[in-house]
Design a protein that fits this description.
2 domains, about 20% strand, three-stranded mixed beta sheet, alpha/beta, about 30% helix, Aldehyde Dehydrogenase, Chain A, domain 2
Length: about 325
């Protein structure tokens, strides 16, 4: 079988690497099958280059930003090395006018604020048909106000800290720029340390940078669409294509839209944050290529053709 080298993020070396190694070791995994490599700040690229150049490494899987994914794919291409990339997204949740508003709000809040929005599948754009946009926004704010932010070691805390100060400052700049471009800050926008309080922007349009950005934090952008067809167009109008959601009472309409959405994963009447170990999870466009889940077995397998002749062949010459 395949042995694995796991290099977690420098920001989560313990929880994303060392603890996993301990768990597998305690479970009886033989030494050398899973190898965890950690590094300090500024060394990730150097270590990545070693993996790319080493002939013993036959495949590389990367989860992270589209920018880094492009660099890694380019370097791996020089060595004809296969890569699986699971990159960023600006995940849309489409809420049609026939949707159960309470259910739609619950799906949107969960998809947005789980892990403070620091998930590649997190809902980045809530696209609501105009007939219910006002009511949806009211109920969404009411729900958001119930979310407690603070130390995640407390059981009642939903919104915990961001990964680092750089991410917090980036969020502040994205919000400031969105407001300058015409968006309205109707809730939140504050922080304490690394805890960024749930924030809601309305009036977001395609003319604004935040429409296209992967806002990696608890910042919700509500976008109004004239109808289902425009909602579909708005959802597809981005370079990403990882995960999308549709909330509707009309399953057939949901399926019709899902077939036209340019996303690797679409969840009808579900949140954009949804992954299962057996499904072919992965994205389209700038969200990467290749699939995880069951499909990953094929990704990590070399197909060979072996023949065996029971009788002698009569060759023509």
């Amino acid at each position: 079988g395949n042995t694995v080298v796991l290099k977690p993020s420098t920001e989560s070396a313990v929880s994303g690497g060392l603890i996993l190694a301990q768990i597998f070791e305690q479970a009886g995994l033989p030494k050398g099958v899973l190898n965890v490599v950690t590094n300090g700040p500024g060394k990730s690229s150097e270590i990545g280059d070693v993996f790319v150049k080493d002939k013993r490494v036959r495949r590389i899987t990367f989860t992270g930003s589209t920018e880094v994914g492009r660099i890694l794919a380019e370097k791996a291409g020089n060595y004809l090395k296969k890569v699986t990339l699971e990159l960023g997204c600006s995940s849309p949740l489409i809420v049609l006018k026939d949707a159960d508003i309470e259910y739609a709000v619950n799906a949107a809040v969960f998809g947005w604020y789980l892990h403070q929005g620091q998930v590649c599948m997190s809902t980045k754009r809530i696209i609501v048909e105009k007939e219910i946009a006002e009511k949806f926004t009211e109920e969404f704010i009411r729900k958001v106000k119930t979310l407690k932010a603070g130390d995640p070691r407390s059981n009642d805390i939903i919104v915990g800290p961001l990964i680092n100060e750089n991410q917090r400052n980036k969020l502040l700049l994205e919000i400031e720029r969105a407001i300058e471009q015409g968006a309205k800050l109707i809730y939140g926008g504050d922080y304490k340390g690394l805890v960024f309080y749930p924030t809601v922007l309305t009036g977001v349009t395609e003319d604004m940078d935040i429409f296209y950005e992967e806002t990696f934090g608890p910042v919700a952008s509500i976008i109004v669409a004239d109808n289902a067809e425009e909602a579909l167009r708005l959802a597809n109008n981005c370079d990403y294509g990882l995960s999308a959601g549709i909330i509707t009472a009309n399953v057939n309409k949901g399926i019709e839209l899902a077939e036209k959405l340019e996303f690797g994963c679409t969840h009808i009447n579900g949140a954009t944050v949804h992954d299962e170990s057996h499904v072919p999870f992965g994205g389209m466009k700038d969200s990467g290529w290749g699939r995880n889940g069951i499909e990953a077995i094929e990704e990590y397998t070399e197909i060979r053709w072996v023949t065996l002749q029971k009788d002698k062949i009569s060759f023509k010459f």
